[in-house]
Structures are given as structure tokens and as C-alpha cells.
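fyi for ur records
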Amino acid sequence: MRILPNGDAAFLAEFASLDEVLACLRALDASRPPGVVDLVAGARTVLVRFEPEVVQADTVRRWIGETAPDGRDTVVSDEVVIDVRYDGPDLEEVGERTGLGAEGVVAAHTGRTWSVAFGGFAPGFAYLTGGDDRLRVPRRDSPRTAVPAGAVGLAGEFSGIYPRQSPGGWQLIGTTDAELWQPERTPPALLRPGLRVRFRAV
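which gave:
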């Protein structure tokens, strides 16, 4: 782990893998001292935000470095089923890249239960892990300037759903009508860290 200052009120802890990120996040969340106001996970990082008037930076840095990772599986039992039309513009290409063919990609994507590792990129966007390793494909060489809301994609070890129209470089394999982000809903995000997610072809 490497700990870097991020302005006057945050540290960025860098890790070698997503598993290390999640284990550290669990431990930090369970032991956060007064003055630590936010923990934000990424694919290889945890951002720790704190209030300098409440806790000293040196104390926060030492706490991050001395906290032992929590390697327990904390995926919750709740499962969200997402209905998907496998009509994405990159489905055939992903089938060719993986050697599965389009039907094989659909079978692999729906054949495993995914879990939400963390959120980011846009409100309601969740990074899902735990899928079939055969579905690991790189991002597109040329990102699209506009990906429609509800697009289901693959990139590296992750699958995800675009909650609103935005630029994006993921390989798009399908679409869903699921509403990922509703500000009036409690909580607003349909997919939250720890939830299990199962895709169902419709």
C-alpha cells in the first residue's frame, strides 16, 4: 500500500488489486476515527477524506497505514435481478474476441451472480465483479461520445450499466430498462456496494 496526500484534507491509499482495496475499505469503515468523513473506493485506491479541524493529518495517515485489512466476504444476501435485452452494438465483437460467440457471451453474462464492488463515474453507476473470467475484454480503442442510458457493458474484470447518457468506452452488449438512479428513492442508487446482481435475458 502507498499513501499519498490529496490536498489538505484527504489521503489516497493505492493498492495492487481490487481485493486489497475492498479488504482495506471494510477495515477502515469499521474503525474510522472522529473527523474522517468519507471513504471512496476505486479499482485500485481508497480516498480518505477528513476534517483537519477535528483530526490531524498525521493521525489519519498513521491510522490508514496501521489498520489491518479485513479479508472477510461481506457481500450481502440481497439480490437484484436485472432484465437485459442482449442487443448491444459490441456483442458480436465481444463474441469474436472471447471465442464464445454472441450466444456464449449472453450465457456467460447471465450464468454467474455478480456483486457490486463500488460505485463511481456517474451517480448510480456500479462496478460489478465476480463474473466469468472469459468475459474480460479491453475497453474500446475509441470511446463513444454518447452511450445511451441503460446500456450494459463490459470492461476488464467489470460489468456495468450506464445510468444516463454519457460518453463511454465500455464494450456494449445489451440494454436494460432498470432505473439505476432515482434521487427521490431511498437509497437513490439501485445497485449499492455488497449487493448481488443477476442478469436475466429477456
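The longest helix spans residues 18-31. thats all i got for now
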